[in-house]
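As the next step, I selected for study one protein, both as residues and as discrete backbone shape codes, as given directly below:
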Amino acid sequence: MRKVYKNIFGEVISKNNAVKLEEYHLYYYQEHSDLLKEIEFISEDSIYNINYFLSEDDDEEQVLDYLKEKSDFFDIEKRETADGFIISTNKLYSLSVDDQPLISKTVFKAEDPENFICSQVIDNDTQEPQLEKTIKCWYTTDKNGEKYAAIECSYQEDGKLELAIDKTSDPDNEQNWTHYDYDTFQDLQEQITTDISYYRTANLLPKEAYQK
């Protein structure tokens, strides 16, 4: 593994400078590549959190044992791609609280891997999504050209839209946001030129991704 030390602002620093700081991050890259495998978050010489990025050739049980030796708090992330979407499955462990992880799936558009469009919590026993904990976001740009979550959606237990909050008229003023539900969703769609039917239910991926 190739180690890279960074300060909390993401700037590369030397090991000597890192150990002088109260807090720094240690990045592990696969040898001779830019493939990021692990990030250790270190404060006062102790690891308080780890992000591990699971590859296809990793044995998850071995990775789990390896991480348990280093920290009580860590996250194992596995990313897959499906028809222009990135699906990230995260298992967040907090061993001082519970041996079982908090599992979630997060979806991004491949061309925009920074802004999630869907986040779901997965039940540990059934491995099914807890639909009432699903959050979806639709993005556009503000007057300064900055991308932001213009519509935020939450859902009922049956996966139907519970609330869609439209911020487009005045992103910074909550009093001017408009609220829609499953029955009035069409009113929201009529104001937007792109198809936003994906946001009417808690389905993880748009229909076209399932059809291909």
Q: What stands out?
A: The chain has a mean pLDDT of 93. Helices lie at 15-18, 60-68, 185-189, 207-211. The CA atoms of residues 40 and 171 lie 35 Å apart. The chain is about 10% helix and 45% strand.
